[in-house]
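Annex B, item 7. Sequence and structure tokens for protein A, then protein B.
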Amino acid sequence: MRRYLRLMKPSKLYNLTWPLIFGGALMLMVGVSTVSADATIGWLIVIFGSVLIAMGVLLIYLRSRISDSED
């Protein structure tokens, strides 16, 4: 796993992290509001938004594992 962390630049991780988190939060809100109209589509959107948020949190963790000397 460390090999893959060396391939990713910290700035690249930073640029991917926040759009994933905020995009996932937006999808989560849209999904929750859609559940009342169509449960199947609403829950699919909620799950997709949750996955995006989880990916963003994972990138925060990965960014914390990269030493600052590589910036």
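Protein B:
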Amino acid sequence: MPVQWRFGSNNSPHYPFVLSDLEGRAASAAQGLSTSLDTNGLGFDHNPAYGNRMTKSNPRTAARSKARAAARLAAVQALYQHDMEQTPLAQLLHEFHNHRLGAEIEDAQYAEADVDFFDDVVKGVLARGGEIDATIAGKLATGWTLERLDKPMKAILRCGTYELLARADVPTGAVITEYVDVAHAFYDKRESGFVNGLLDSIGKVARA
């Protein structure tokens, strides 16, 4: 059943991000995720909708989770840049590998990311773009199209949908929780709830 949510469109955007603004928000979010994971010692953050899915993890598991969280955030940023500037894939990956992942930009320290995971999400979203967009569009409320969503929102949903379709090794609840966390970096609670509901709807079909 389509998710019944309404928010800004390209015709009247509520969140007119520019790339520099997205970078700043992404850096802050990466630091926040890092702090949260260090404090809680959990494999991934708790989402009340899914309960506690893990007990305290060992340092290696926590580090891997933190690196994947940073990779997801970077993948959303990279796909936003690709959507805005049509940056070729090879150039996009090179830029992030050499100048973004784990780097310090304008006094903001980006968290160390799982590079292989970052590459897989970015490449996977671009390779399966038609399938992913059709999957998302099929869950939007009647009368809404993907084109009406803000570009950062589209990047978040595309990454989450890719993982639900292609990364069976990542639990459904973990995918949803992680991209809700990413959404918190750019949006208020209402839009984060939209991400939660839509990815949950997609997951029920993709992981059936």
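Comment on protein B: The helical segments are 19-40, 59-85, 89-99, 115-127, 129-137, 151-166, 172-186, 189-206.
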